[in-house]
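User: I'm putting together notes for a lab meeting next week and I want to include a structural view of one of the chains we've been expressing. I don't have a solved structure, so I'd like a prediction I can at least talk through. The sequence is below, exactly as it appears in our construct file.
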Amino acid sequence: MPTLYKILPAPLWREAERTGRFAGSPVDIKDGFIHFSTAAQVAETAAKHFAGQRDLLLVSVEAGVLGPALKWEPSRGGALFPHLYGELDANSVRQVVPLPLGPDGRHAFPPLDN
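Assistant: Thanks for the context. Below is the predicted structure for the 114-residue chain, given as structure tokens.
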């Protein structure tokens, strides 16, 4: 199972750590699922939805721990994107790292697992 990535503002994740669960960002809640990206998709997600934003975190989770609430659905250009229909248990998260802006104004990603 692949590693999945969620980009979100640090205050949202701090609240998830406090409560032990992440119900989603405002966009996730509006759409009815938590948006994730694969390693191949996450840089484009950052550029499209988080351009120029600071104080972001990159949350990674193994797809296999999400169970049947994880659905792969077509999105941009027909590519399949991982969507979680339910809350994310903060204990299932593998890693949380800062996602800073680089000198070119794009987000600087750490090495990603596929």
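A couple of points you could mention at the meeting. The chain has one domain: 3-98. The chain has a mean pLDDT of 95.

User: Perfect, that's what I needed.
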